[in-house]
Write a structure and sequence with these properties.
The complex is a heterodimer of chains A (90) and B (268).
Chain A (H helix, E strand, L loop, with lengths): L2 H6 L5 H18 L3 H16 L10 E7 L2 E7 L4 H9 L1
Antiparallel strand pairs in A: 1-2
Chain B lengths: L3 E6 L7 H14 L4 E5 L7 H5 L9 H5 L5 H4 L1 E2 L6 E4 L12 H12 L4 E5 L6 H7 L4 E6 L3 H16 L6 E7 L1 H5 L6 H8 L2 E7 L2 H9 L10 H13 L15 H9 L6
Parallel strand pairs in B: 1-5, 1-6, 2-4, 2-5, 6-7, 7-8
Antiparallel strand pairs in B: 3-4
The chains are: A alpha+beta (90), B alpha/beta (268).
Chain lengths: 90, 268
């Protein structure tokens, strides 16, 4: 930061924050899936999957992403390490 | 003559639609194009005061639509530019007084007499917006370098495409080059990056716009106004001219110039 930037008191770079927030809000707007609805989907997914497999709800991540022009709903569901260990022990 | 119809819209209020309409209209008329600006913001008319024609209104858009006068009687001829006209909105009615079909009929009636018909859309995505874009051949979306305004612009882009009026082009208004340069304001490239839309103009924040609206003399008439110059460039691009985008960053304030002297290349 040079003298003049210091005089202006400017190392905040809030534009970057703005762009990030904008990206995220547009991803949700375009898919018509607000974050709260996504959270509900996640809860139902966890409930459903838990009937068949052991998962740790706190590790489940459901999010919207965008690659080029393709919007994607991505569910990342790590299988519980407990489960893997038990299988090996068998 | 067969007019092209351009609607200026935004979604969010207060981003500068009316200012843009008045200034682009003035710039088109100053370059010899017969131009009429239509205020489609029924109930909240403002284009008249920005253009400085508020004292001469006798009839308005709703009077025309409801058959109380001829379209010619409602149009106000600008004092300064012989090729510029205003069709004012009604102030005491609301958006439902006019339908999209009415707007199409009105525009078709004017088409033969003008080169350009500019329609100043109200904020929002309801009836007033639908009225404003119904007759459009092309749509210009005004935004500011702020999260809220860009978000609304994105919504409008989608609606314009759904109405098959796209692709719309973007005006980024009220840019503060100094803030963009120090990373505290979204730059035009950031905005284009998230919106995926073509740019037609980038207008700096400029005190001359306030002076212009105080006086009712659009800044595009002032050869020294930076914002006025940006609007004149937009008018030229509308006419199909290729006008390079001025790098606003080269015209920033005292600190900007000094720090470039100290640090050539400018990076931080």
């Amino acid at each position: 930061m040079n003298l003049f930037e210091r005089l202006r008191g400017s190392d905040s770079h809030t534009a970057r924050t703005a762009k990030e927030r904008l990206r995220l809000v547009l991803i949700h707007d375009r898919a018509d899936l607000p974050p709260a609805k996504l959270e509900a989907i996640k809860d139902e997914l966890v409930a459903l999957l838990s009937r068949y497999i052991e998962i740790d709800p706190s590790l489940v991540n459901v999010s919207l992403t965008k690659e080029r022009n393709q919007q994607r709903l991505v569910a990342d569901i790590p299988l519980s390490p407990e489960r893997a260990r038990r299988r090996e022990a068998r | 003559m067969t007019a092209k119809i351009a609607t200026i819209t935004s979604g969010k209020g207060g981003v500068g639609k009316t200012t843009a309409t008045a200034n682009i209209g003035v710039a088109l008329a100053a370059s010899g194009r017969r131009t009429v600006c239509i205020d489609a913001d029924i109930g909240l008319r403002n284009l008249d005061v920005i253009m400085g024609l508020e004292n001469r209104i006798v009839y308005d858009l709703v009077d025309v639509v409801e058959g109380r006068c001829k379209i010619r009687q409602a149009m106000i001829k600008d004092k300064r530019l012989p090729d510029l006209y205003l069709l004012p909105a009604a102030q005491t009615r609301d958006k439902t007084a006019v339908s999209p079909q009415d707007m199409i009929r009105l525009a078709d009636e004017l088409r033969g007499d003008f080169d350009w018909i500019l329609i100043d859309s109200p904020a929002g995505i309801e009836r007033g917006f639908r009225n404003a874009i119904a007759p459009a051949d092309t749509v210009l979306i005004v935004t500011n370098p702020e999260v809220s305004a860009v978000r609304d612009a994105d919504r409008i882009i989608g609606l314009v495409e759904a109405e098959e009026k796209g692709p719309a082009r973007l005006i980024v208004n009220r840019v503060k080059p100094e803030m963009v340069r120090r990373g505290d304001m979204l730059g035009t490239d950031d905005i284009l990056d998230v919106l995926a839309i073509e740019l037609i103009g980038m207008v700096p924040e400029d005190d001359s716009i306030v002076l212009a609206s105080n006086q009712g003399v659009p800044a595009a008439l002032d050869p020294r106004s930076r914002a006025g110059k940006a609007f004149r460039d937009i008018a030229r691009r509308l006419n199909g001219e290729v006008v390079p985008f001025e790098s606003l960053a080269t015209r920033d304030g005292f600190f900007g110039r000094i720090s470039r002297l100290v640090k050539p290349g400018g990076g931080s």
